[in-house]
Specification:
- This protein has 656 residues and is of the alpha/beta class.
- The strands form four sheets. An eight-stranded mixed sheet has the order 1-2-4-3-5-6-7-8, with helices on both faces. Strands 20-21-23-22-24-25-26-27 form an eight-stranded mixed sheet, sandwiched between helices. Strands 12, 13, 16, 17, 18 and 19 form a six-stranded antiparallel sheet that branches.
- The chain starts with a helix and ends with a helix.
- GO terms for molecular function: acyltransferase activity, transferring groups other than amino-acyl groups.
- InterPro entries: AB_hydrolase_fold, Esterase-like, Ig-like_fold, Ig_E-set, Mycobacterial_A85_antigen.
- It comes from Mucilaginibacter gossypiicola.
């Protein structure tokens, strides 16, 4: 009896070991791509992209294609093949140039989400002159896309079968494409059920055959096809071609995926189509589950919307969906980092989904018949030299500027008369938590300046400086301080108007206003520690240049200096030791006098700004000037760079 039990247990263990060692690619639910799915990763294995040439009897010439072999490709095993087709304006390089399929697939391999496969990207224009030149819509060139069916079946597939270690049966062969290539994939795949078992169309174009021609025998499709995928952007003008195919397939009870996501006719949608479709290939498929695939992501109304207004909405992949009612407008666009044409529906609503937008706050405009206006759904912000709409893309690591349950300071409005400008001026002044209850306490002061095209409302409104300071102070990471934000433009009406020969600050007497009027006014109205060791100045962009212009000529008044994406103008060939009347000439003296000198820049800022700030950083290092240099990862010349910079700078100043 004991022997029998042992034998049973032994064979059970053997079976478990065998099962656990069989490669299994079970079909798991596939979801919308997350941010970063198409970003190159250096820390994973990579496949190889190469160009191949094959003889085409169909065309009577040698033709080219790109081929992707997966990481670890070896001739000791066989691979399934995906034929991936381009659009009417592209060629064999369109996917490579616009969609980076090798990056998407490499990342999926690294996560164990796809079966190793070869991907062939051919030129779908079967003509001797198959380049996308001249009138790409000419009848003969369009006809070339139909002729490609013969080239694919009779020339390219046999070539791949003979030159690469691939399975040659239909169950290991897929075809998919974007736009014109999506139409080709449906036409060729459904028309050759003995050749393909997997068919995908991303935003299929008008070349798609009518549904009854595509699927004359629904039962054959049901029995022979393993997966039929149709996807499109909800704002794509060509969505009707996808929908009519879907409607017909639904009527005939043909299992398929119909996936509609926010988007237009672009690579954002097509890359996600490849991302999702490729994960389903060459794995067991349960046809009864395909109808459940639907876009399930929910957009969140932007925090910058007018309270109670639903649109614009931000989706998890940082795309933004806009919806505007303008029934009599001829054209409407969203100008958000680039222009996005909107599509009008029968109700007079214009809609569009953007590309993924970078983290942080961005100005945008609504262009109605080429006139830039503020989106009525958005709060208005002073930026770009005028009132503009704004949107704040949430940062997962951005809780440092979130409103939290901590003691809060106040932003106070201060009006004062300037004898220099002969006009009333306005400043916003942040007082830290406890300022009104601790009447005998005095505070250090940070003078914080905005950028070009903005004003004193920028830092508390777009920059969230009050919440940044509140959170830092509550965490005991910053010294309680007063922060003064004034308008960085000032002119002396008694002085002649100057041109820009002296640089962007020519004619701007703000440094004089700050030193001679604002500082004395603040020291009078507020409980300040009125000495240089308790006084700092910083600014972003133009405000950073103003900060250096002001402080370097008034080091008797400032001990802490910060330039965020802006600092000192260094002309080519300029010696740093000669700038600002030689303030950097004696490094030892400067380092003893200035307690913190801070520079920052976003890693994706324009080259001109990178050169300016990084050049100053290198010159300071060479001169022996102690300073902090921070590069904000993944941000450009924008508020997210400056919010992060303020967080760092505020945590460094006024420390004993």
């Amino acid at each position: 009896m004991n022997t029998l039990k042992f034998i049973k247990r032994f064979w059970f263990a053997v079976c478990v070991i065998i099962v656990l060692n069989i490669p299994a690619y079970s079909q798991q639910p596939v979801t919308q791509a997350r941010v970063g799915f198409d970003e190159f990763r250096a820390d994973i294995p990579h496949g190889v992209i190469d160009t191949i040439s094959y003889e085409s009897k169909t065309v009577g010439s040698t033709r080219r294609a790109l081929i992707y072999t997966p990481p670890g490709y070896t001739k000791s095993k066989k691979y399934p093949v995906l034929y991936l087709l381009h659009g009417i304006g592209g060629d064999e390089k369109e996917w490579y140039n616009g969609g980076s399929p090798q990056v998407i697939l490499d990342n999926l391999y690294a996560q164990g989400k796809i079966v190793p496969m070869i991907v062939v990207m051919p030129n779908g224009r079967a003509l001797k002159d198959d380049r996308p030149t001249g009138n790409i819509m000419a009848a003969d060139k369009v006809q070339g896309f139909a002729v490609f069916e013969k080239d694919l079946l009779n020339d390219l597939i046999p070539f791949i079968n003979s030159k690469y270690h691939v399975y040659t049966d239909k169950d290991h062969r897929a075809v998919a494409g974007l736009s014109m290539g999506g139409g080709q994939s449906l036409n060729f795949g459904l028309g050759n059920l003995n050749v393909f078992s997997w068919v995908g169309a991303f935003s299929a174009a008008p070349n798609t055959k009518k549904p009854e021609e595509l699927v004359p025998d629904p039962e054959a499709v049901k029995s022979k096809l393993k997966l039929l995928w149709i996807s499109c952007g909800s704002s794509d003008g060509l969505i009707t071609f996808s929908k009519r195919t879907h409607d017909y397939l639904t009527e005939k009870n043909v299992p398929h995926v119909y996936y509609i996501e926010p988007g237009v006719h672009n690579f954002k949608v097509w890359k996600n189509g490849l991302y999702m479709f490729s994960q389903m290939l060459f794995k067991p498929v349960n046809p009864s589950t395909l109808g459940r695939y639907a876009y399930s992501e929910t957009g969140v109304p932007a925090s910058t919307n007018i309270p109670g207004v639903k649109y614009p909405q931000i989706f998890p992949d940082n795309t933004v969906f806009f919806r505007v009612k303008a029934p009599k407008a001829e054209s409407v666009q969203i100008d958000l980092m680039k222009k996005y044409p909107m599509t009008k529906d029968t109700g007079g609503y214009w809609t569009v989904t953007t590309d993924p937008i970078a983290l942080g706050f961005h100005y945008y405009s609504l262009l109605i018949d080429d006139v830039a206006v503020v989106d009525p759904s958005s709060q208005a912000f002073y930026g770009m030299g005028r009132m503009a709409s704004g949107i704040d893309i949430p940062d997962r690591e951005g809780d440092f500027y979130a409103v939290k349950d901590v003691p809060h300071g106040e932003v106070r409005s201060v009006n004062y008369y300037s004898n220099i400008t002969k006009a009333w001026r306005h400043a916003n002044v942040y007082t830290p938590p406890g300022y009104d209850t601790q009447a005998d306490k005095r505070y250090p002061v940070l003078y914080l300046q905005h950028g070009s095209g903005e004003d004193e409302t920028g830092w508390p409104t777009q920059g969230k400086m009050n919440f940044i300071l509140d959170n830092l102070i509550a965490a005991k990471q910053a010294t309680p301080m007063i922060v003064v934000m004034d308008r960085g433009y000032a002119t002396d009406p008694t002085q002649p108007v100057t041109n820009n020969a002296g640089g962007p600050m020519a004619g701007n007497v703000f440094p004089d206003v700050l030193v001679k009027e604002i500082i004395p006014m603040v020291d009078t109205k507020f409980r300040t520690l009125a000495n240089r060791d308790q006084r700092a100045m910083a600014g972003l962009s133009m405000g950073g240049f103003q900060t250096f212009q002001t402080t370097m000529t008034n080091l008797d008044k400032f001990a802490y200096i910060g330039g965020f994406s802006g600092a000192a103008f260094m002309q080519p060939g300029t010696e740093i030791t000669k700038m600002y009347n030689g303030v950097f000439a004696d490094a030892i003296a400067f380092n003893q006098k200035v307690k913190v000198l801070y520079l920052s820049i976003g890693t994706t800022e324009p080259e001109r700004m990178q050169t300016t700030v990084n050049g100053l950083h290198q010159a300071l290092e060479k001169a022996g000037i102690k300073h902090v240099y921070y590069q904000s990862p993944g941000t450009a010349h924008e508020w997210q760079t400056w919010r992060r910079s303020l967080k760092q700078f505020a945590g460094l100043i006024f420390k004993n």
